[in-house]
UniProtKB/TrEMBL annotation, chain A:
Native organism: Brassicogethes aeneus (Rape pollen beetle)
PANTHER family reported in the protein's UniProt record: GLUTAMYL-TRNA GLN AMIDOTRANSFERASE SUBUNIT B MITOCHONDRIAL AND PROKARYOTIC PET112-RELATED, GLUTAMYL-TRNA(GLN) AMIDOTRANSFERASE SUBUNIT B, MITOCHONDRIAL
Subunit record text: Heterotrimer of A, B and C subunits.
InterPro entries given in the database record: Asn/Gln-tRNA_amidoTrfase_suB/E (IPR017959), Asn/Gln-tRNA_Trfase_suB/E_cat (IPR006075), Asn/Gln_amidotransferase (IPR018027), Asn/Gln_tRNA_amidoTrase-B-like (IPR003789), GatB (IPR004413), GatB_C_1 (IPR042114), GatB_Yqey_C_2 (IPR023168), Gln_synth/guanido_kin_cat_dom (IPR014746)
EC number of this enzyme: 6.3.5.-
Compartments (UniProt record): Mitochondrion
Pfam short name (any one): GatB_N
The protein's name: Glutamyl-tRNA(Gln) amidotransferase subunit B, mitochondrial
Positions of the Asn/Gln amidotransferase domain: 363-512
Lineage: superkingdom: Eukaryota
Biological classification of the source: Eukaryota, Metazoa, Ecdysozoa, Arthropoda, Hexapoda
From TrEMBL, chain B:
PANTHER family: GLUTAMYL-TRNA(GLN) AMIDOTRANSFERASE SUBUNIT A, MITOCHONDRIAL, TRANSAMIDASE
Organism field: Brassicogethes aeneus (Rape pollen beetle)
Keywords: ATP-binding, Ligase, Mitochondrion, Nucleotide-binding, Protein biosynthesis
Name of this chain's protein: Glutamyl-tRNA(Gln) amidotransferase subunit A, mitochondrial
EC class of the enzyme, as a word: ligase
Family: Belongs to the amidase family. GatA subfamily.
GO cellular component assignments: glutamyl-tRNA(Gln) amidotransferase complex; mitochondrion
EC number annotated for this UniProt entry: 6.3.5.7
Amino acid sequence: MIQLTNMIPFNNFKSIKRCYSTAKSKKWKSVVGLEVHAQIFTESKLFSGSSTKFTSPVNSNVSLFDCSTPGTLPVLNKSCVEAGVLTALALNCNINPVSTFDRKHYFYADMPSGYQITQQRSPLALNGKLAFQVYTPGYHKTPYKTEVKIKQVQLEQDSGKSLHDDDRSLVDLNRAGIPLMELVFEPDLKDGEEAAALIKELTSILQRINTCSCKMEEGALRVDANVSIHQEGEPYGTRTEIKNIGSVRGVAGAVKYEIERQIKVKESGGTITNETRAWDAASKITVAMRDKEELQDYRYMPEPNLPPLHVAVGPFTRGCVNVEELKNKIPELPEETRVRLKNEMGLSSEQAIVLVNDTALLNIFETALEKRKISPKLLANFLINEFNTMLNKLDKEAKDIDTSPKFYGDIVELLENNKINRNTAKYLLGKIIENTKETPLEILQKEDLLQISNEEELKEICAKVIEENEKLVKQYKAGKTKVFKAIMGCVSAKTKGKADMGKCEKLLKDMLN
Amino acid sequence: MEKVLHSNIRTAARLLLEKHIKSTDLLKTSFIKAKNLKKYNAFITLTENEGTSQAENSLQRFQLDKPKSELDGIPIAIKDNFCTNNIKTTCASKMLENFVPAYNATVYERLQDSGACLVGKTNLDQFAMGAGTVDSIYGPTKNIWGYKEGSEEFYISGGSSGGSAIAVSSGACFGAIGSDTGGSTRNPASYCGLVGLKPTYGLVSRHGLIPLVNSMDVPGILTRTVDDCVSILNAVAGFDEKDSTSLTKPYNKIRLPPFNKLGVQGLRVGIPIEYHSEFLRDEVYDTWNEIANILEKYGAKIKQVSLRHTEFSIVCYSILNQCEVASNMARYDGIEFGLRADNHSSTEKLFATSRSLGFNEVVRNRILTGNYFLLTRNYEKYFNQALKVRRLISNDFDNVWEDVQVLLTPTTLSTAPLYKEFIQKTNRDQCALQDYCTQPANMAGIPAVSIPIKLSKNGLPLSLQVMGKNLSEPMILALAKFIEGIVEFKHFT
């Protein structure tokens, strides 16, 4: 999976832009709303003591309650409430002092009780808002800020999984009863990039407060998108819902495709039907899901086995968790980090956004800066450009690399102090990614890579180069100044790239003129 | 030994403690008795293996003079809608005919922990949906009272905990656990001449009780004497973390003084006029009057009170019951447990066939109606309206406690009906009639106890009910014991 934060090779820029400009028909406005199911990062399930470990063997995390054995009862996991409240606070929601649970009925083989316990009438939290930056390098020229409102945050159970074979179906209940937070966003977004940016922002927030692993590849975060189009000044059009999008790029792609599809339908005189569609990530299209049976009536009913959930708001102790205590647990959130990076460290908006979008990269950045005086801007630049480009080539992400973050700081420090040049810096970077044991300095010493900056020594080398390259020198002196670069190249080659090329340029020019 | 079985828990406990009798012999006698009385059909399963090993352990404890409690070595029975580890738990249904749970209901766990020995699992109406113990795949439980050898006719035991009631009144055990959602413990207690307690909602854990209506279900207790009822209540009551609706307040064991130390001087007893239903039989009415007069004679203040919304209780209950049933029954799809039909053409077909084979018509009807009431377009009109009425009924009780401390009412409108008469009416109509006096207590969650008073002209038990406010078990049981001492009801021997 390529993340947005990774540098997109330059030659791709144009093609993306081209798609964008054709997709955006002037007269159509698109409206996008998201619903996110985030698995709460806890040890045990929402209403039972079973483990939530993703890698457990099939049907091994199943308690009697999880397979809905008659007579078993749900017992609410307090840490799920804490995670839900923490998340709601981070999304600036109003916490409901009393919320309730409901049963949502439907028959499905991987829903053992025939209903899902959710919070339909009175959810955990309401009315939040989140401001976030929208910036896809190569897509947007400059970042911009937008805001989305959160309708509600509710706790609910995940379902099990059905596996279909040719002639039989199998059920795995490991996922049944895993705690979910359903986050319902208002349709305040206008396109796929905003939707993707929201998911990225949400991911950073949830990872920081540690309430969801956000591993989309494990289904820990799943996105449904509602998309509609309308013409300016007219009411919103009929919306379609794209279910279960499993990656950030998928969100951008699915929404973009769906907007274009709806425009095409409308412009050819068709009508949009309210339907559920699926995102086919391989062929990059949305497809209508198998003819949806007539509208389901979920026959909601209050869950009689769970008393109302009390959350202490304000200076009270009643309830299973206390909002004030949880407020103090909220660490710096992404937007605050971006502001700090810009205001205190002098980074550009773009740099701040790219770093904050990649938790692992940001961690490298912040750890590398500790206890040393190097330019944060230079370090950010080095990580965003050199490091990310290298990761892209390796088809890896920052989180896959376990090199000590200090090593990156070492390299930038050496660079800033003119101990090495840019080429050596890149070389060292490649080395420390492969071999995580040796420090950059050790590699330098071992391989004798320190920059040659002693002027006498450089003079000697330059003289030798002039002596050995009579032909080039002749051409240069005859006015063909272009060959100067070639002469510089010879110096670099002779010193195996170690020479301080700035100094050499000056020396050579002096010697040749 | 058989005589011991017909005595009370305190007597048996003393005999066990003084080593006059052995737990193992006592239980053996229970099994013999249960087998001899097979014709009444009280038991679905006799648990000889479990019971015997429990009795052997009990015997060892007595040999060391270290019984676990006053219930150590006492034979008990449990309604077959409470899960028992490794013991078939059928709910008297085709659906769970072969269901063997992998855990114990808290009630059974606690009885086991106090040393009681399990005789067996008792008969009920399928999934406890009924008031007669007639709708069981194992056939009806027959009342021991008025039973004529060789006759086709018999009286019903009442229900849905009829099996538990007959197990106790026949003397196969000292006490039995039933469940009570609309009167399922008190109704058979009334018809079989037993003490039947419906505790305050939340006082006794529902964990392991296969639900009928979660918001009203409580485990109930059936015994021959009030003291026996208290002994069992003391063993099973109290907070259980496995049931989120169980009360967290610590339970204080109830100790009732002996009868001669009990009095009712100044006790304010309410007689709710609404319980004087048009269907109330004269004999029951007379019994009611008689006891009210006796209490007054002993110094109680008898006051006529009104619970205005009583008449709406049944229809309200019927809606809430069917909605929760529709929901609770959704898990029986043949996938994880229970009956699985041999139709694999599609998942939906498998569900549908398993469910129509596994449930009787009563259950299927309730599921259908419940789902209808829960449809989005009907929710406000039926379910939510029923919740509001339930609140009114509950408020009626709250208001009445300002005037009186306890309520005295009939438990059932008549004595036990004949089976052939009972089945003339539909399950629904019978429940409406049978639960009339018992069901409001479930709506309000309050405790209620049925006490046998005397025999009718045709030799069937007549009983009354005492209700009190939440957690007033010590008071209503004390009053029950007082009445018990006065009327000296003669148990079946």
